[in-house]
Amino acid sequence: MTLAAPALAQSDYPNRPIRLVCPYPAGGATDVLTRILADGLRERLGQPVVVENRSGAGGNIGVDAVAKSAPDGYVLGTAPVGNFVINPFLYPSMPYDPVRDLTAVSLAFEVPNVAVVSEKFVPARTMQDFLAWAKTKPGGVVYGTSGVGTSAHLCSELLFKRAGIACTHVPFRSAAQVIPAMLSGDVDFAIDNLASYAGVIGQGQMTALGMTTAERWPTMPGIPTMAEAGVPDFVVTAWSALIGPAGLPGPVQDRLVAAVKSVSEDEAIRQRFLRAGGQAMATTPAGARARMDRERPMWKEMVEISGARME
């Protein structure tokens, strides 16, 4: 009987509400997309999926809470690329080991970065015009990001280092703070999640110079890819995975993998993701790990190029 009880609990999963930890603040891109995912999972799992924001330390606090939870499938989380393959190169010590302490159930959504400038303060409407202008700007370019070591920071440094352009990084707490600084002329440039900038692009307050995707974004087909804009080898998207603690039982993983796959194939939900600046995804746990392994060297190089370090 002692062996049958866990098996019965797993076959009955889920039979109570699930907590879905978002390791970033409410209102940001990861939070918005996590809540769309939660809605889709709720419909498929037949239980409430309650989003809990636990931000701080580059997402490490929230992800660590998932890593230290019971491996029963009732505490899950969303973990962006940074928490798997960027933060280990940024922080001298981590509260969790992303390989040993977490189950990457499936990649769930990804977000492209978009390069933008203020319509009012930067006299450039293409990436090549911007780079030419930046090379002649006294003191170099001032760019803003949502924090040290974010994909926005690493992408910006990579772009300017490759182009040989002097730059100054101004980190903010979120894109919501970067945008007013750009619109007032205090910051020249940003390359960050489309989800954060879609509104000001649509309103004509900012010019989008390029998207860090291999193909043009479905809801904004007028924005060129970085390759089309004259910046080759610059395909960088910020994906997020549905995670649980290590030791998540196979039947629970299978149930969640099937649910994420169903969410990604639901056209209404796919459109919600796209409108929010993201794209629904689904993989197996092995597929999620394979992408992490494939991208780890790229992100390590970008951290080294940036010189970023968190203490």
UniProtKB/TrEMBL annotation:
<dbReference type="InterPro" id="IPR042100">
    <property type="entry name" value="Bug_dom1"/>
</dbReference>
<protein>
    <submittedName>
        <fullName>Tripartite tricarboxylate transporter substrate binding protein</fullName>
    </submittedName>
</protein>
<comment type="similarity">
    <text>Belongs to the UPF0065 (bug) family.</text>
</comment>
<dbReference type="Pfam" id="PF03401">
    <property type="entry name" value="TctC"/>
</dbReference>
<dbReference type="InterPro" id="IPR005064">
    <property type="entry name" value="BUG"/>
</dbReference>
